[in-house]
Protein: NAD-dependent epimerase
Organism: Maribacter cobaltidurans
Amino acid sequence: MKVLITGAAGFIGFHTCKSLIANGHQVIGLDNINDYYDVNLKFGRLEELGISRQDSEDFNRLTSSSKYPNNFNFTRTNLEDGKFLAALFESEKFNAVCNLAAQAGVRYSIENPRAYIDSNIIGFFNILECCRNYQVEHLIYASSSSVYGLNKKIPFETSDNVDHPISLYAATKKSNELMAHTYSHLYGFSTTGLRFFTVYGPWGRPDMAYFLFTDAIIKNKSIKVFNNGHMERDFTYIDDIVKGIVKIIEKGLDNCPQSSDLYKVYNIGNNDSVKLMSFIESIEDNLGMKAKKEMLPMQPGDVIRTWANVDALIEDYNYKPSTPVKLGVKNFITWYKNYYKI
């Protein structure tokens, strides 16, 4: 298959590219490499894919990988550039598109709302239009567990009402699901939304709590623990997320016998809710250091607990994430020490 991966320099996008390349697919990665967090990490991921920093500096130029010359190419562009996207779709004729590009971060959306409208709404609209106009068979896209808002019913199911997001980031992700539903209904192509639950692991995002905790503990600084530590998350290891994405890309919604329509949304989580303090303990154990904790109140836009019901994923794709948190944290800490030469 020929697959477009947007957000290819991002955490999930990078790992997805690697997996698809390993499976023999032809992949084109796309990313704007914005400075929401350290761009050196993004360039580092691309270098792992065989794209040099010099080659990834220019916008709107398709660059061949030195590591995978026959099945990976990269272009730096913005999803808001509809004209360039249309030209790319017309020339490459993708079988599937996996849209993992987005302006991420719940708290950042409170301070910088326009970035979310530009990337997550206008950018996603451009992707939908290109899929419609250039006969893409299947669009897979990143949604988020944040769409559940203050839902008190546990575990979260995709059939739950998600009409009350509590951050603009969550609102844009819910909007993506509604937009995808409309395009599937009107234009007859498959769309699959994936609600990711607290993804962590090697090459992760530096703005995520587990990354911030690790960095602070190593530097003997205090960590900020919100809601006085009374929080729980369905922490999902990156390899489990990617296996789910790749299964859905390769199998395809149309080939899934249980799927009755072109539009689907799935939770991808570890199907467990882990106490934040236990997660911090796993980091401490792997570092051999104790954290200095600054206990703080709840932050705007945050939720107390998340937990994914993944029954639909099991039924349709015979797949369930399963990496234990202790193993996932160990793998992350090992990568962190190697990457930062600690």
Notes: The chain has one domain: 2-197+237-269+307-322. The first strand starts at residue 2 and ends at 6. The radius of gyration is 19 Å.
